[in-house]
Amino acid sequence: MKSLTMRYSAASVRDLNDMREFLERAVITLGGSEDDAGDLVLAVNEAVTNVILHGYGGEPGPVALCVEAAGGDLSVILSDSAPHFDPTRVPPP
Description:
By secondary structure, this protein is an alpha+beta fold. It has helices at 16-29, 34-55; strands spanning 2-11, 61-70, 73-80.
């Protein structure tokens, strides 16, 4: 298995562009296509934005992104220290 990781001790919305660029480069470096990279960048950008804006309340917080390649599959692991979100504790949209 091969992997590439980027860590932020205090990620903020200002870091999102760097994270998107890292993800795109990592996916392509690890054998993914440009389409794969675009899809993953879109999904992970949304997830990281939610962590920063909602999990950390807009304040900086630790975030790590790891892209792994194994057996022709790509995985992205997003790690953070924000409080867990419990969807059962909010009203339906």
